[in-house]
Write a structure and sequence with these properties.
By secondary structure, the protein is α+β, with helices and mostly antiparallel strands. It is built from four helices and seven strands, in the order αααβββαββββ.
Length: about 250
Amino acid sequence: MRCDTSARRHGGHAFSLIELLVVISIIALLVGILVPTLASARESARTVFCLNNMRQLALATTNYANAYEGHLPTVGFSHGSSTYSTQAWFFLLEPYSDGKLHYRCPSDKSVYWDTPAPSSGLLRRLSYATNYLVSGQAAAYPSSEGWNRLDRSPRPTRTVYAVELTPRDDTGGFATADHVHPETWLVGGIDKMAEQVEIDRHQGGVSNYAYLDGHAETEKAEDTYLLDPASTFPNLIWTNNHFWPDVAR
């Protein structure tokens, strides 16, 4: 009696080329399904980690304000500057954070963490930037001199204190700054905002924002800043503006 050694070698069944190709196709299909799902899960985790970073930043800011009669930290990493000031919020908040502040978002892939930015010659130190209008240095703008006092903010729950900073260095040197300038977004709107703020760092075209009352949210840019196209200066109509304290909504 003939004995099929090939069948014995495969546990009593000889795989044909067609069967082998079917198995490989099924494995490839499963990998194709799982890889995007895993990538999505990883990005969701990075978004949550970043959101917690910003929440801790916001809480440290309120702790600082409580210790300094309501005053908010100032800024000190000028865009395009070749120096850092120790008066920047980056340094001032450290004693009020219980060691919980993390200044880099895990989704921030800016090349300037390792290579000095051409505009300043400095390395990137932060994924986050504060709102210049509440820094105490924006006195040239109406009412802004008082906006650096937390107790003078009309709507702290709707006023952004910090954003995710652009990773680019080709739009004014903001890659190594520690603040953004919402007062310069009047012309250009969200497109101008996007030169300073990384508005779609996370999955779904969203970024994280920290607010003056100590909370943080994951939002689309247009939900934080949107000028009615029918409005004209100086009679501006805001659909959304979470940056100017006197019109925050």
